[in-house]
Amino acid sequence: MDSGLRKEIEDKVLSGERLSREDGIALYECDDLAWLGGLAHHVRTRKNGDVVHFNVNRHLNMTNVCQASCAYCSFQRKPGEKDAYTMRIEDAVRLAKEMEPEGITELHIVNGLHPTLPWRYYPRSLRELKKVLPNVSLKAFTATEIQHFETISGMSASEILDELMDAGLESLTGGGAEIFDWEVRQHIVDHATHWEDWSRIHRLAHEKGLKTPATMLYGHIEEPRHRVDHVLRLRELQDETGGFQVFIPLRYQHDFHDSRDGIVRNRLQARTTMATGAEALKVFAVSRLLFDNVPHVKCFWVMHGLATAQLALNHGADDLDGSVVEYKITHDADGFGTPNKMTRDDLLELIRDAGFRPAERNTRYEIIREYEGPEPGRRDVPQPMRF
Ligand code: SF4
Asked: The pTM is what?
């Protein structure tokens, strides 16, 4: 990037002016990660100070049976496969109840697109879960699942959302977005929910007063321009509805190998190399800079490893996804030593160690509890990237 453009982008960021598509592509072409991180940190600090938000949640996948076969997915199983499962509602409730002593405030529920489970299973599950865990927020279902419910119920998305909200739904989840550009999407996504339906369903949720997250799966066959396009679509929708609370870049997990049967289920694997830590930090920084109207950028540490997650907090992220137990969609025990469970204390330590002040939030991003920042003698408070 020449010094003129660099100065131009810097001036825009410092004055709060919106960056263009061309700026986004130029930022991805820039190799000066310290500069990028510094700019993103400036924006992140302007929006969220020295706070890192986190929540303590539990991921619940009630069925891994799915009629689709997305190329990046190592979670789905076909009916009758050895380790295909579908929980009875009582079992899902029992499992969720077991988490109560850990002080969870949110259940994050995502499932495969089961070909024969009836629609009534889903609102009934929420009702039963809410009955035993009245103080736990239910963040459930991707836009892809909502569209699947339209097919199996014959109801409209609006009616479906009304019934789910009546049963206790507080937020959709952000999945099913992957990369919106059809050039890439046609090679990785096997379900029927593309930008038109994904945005239709999130827009509808926002109109009904739900706040939702938005995700982007990166580090597979997409190019930087596809990432820019993805964020700009979301930015435009956010201008319209203001309903996105958080943007979550998800790193495609390359090295999945199913230890139970030795099958490599993740069909993109042979065509990709996994994004490096530096590339991941660039994605966080550019996302923070481009997506100027979303309040938060989250690092889902399970997909990035703990050290990269800490660094992401200096590259635009201000939110860490919480105490996850057995996250399965694209991650099983990976080869990087990343745990798939952390406690509240582990998260506090991780955030303080990176030089930030932890704040526990609920699903609506209301602060439940604020904590002391790091010991001054141990780290600068906070530790900005210098540029
Ligand atoms: S990503 Fe979702 S829809 Fe696609 S195969 Fe996996 S579980 Fe099914």
From this structure: 0.91
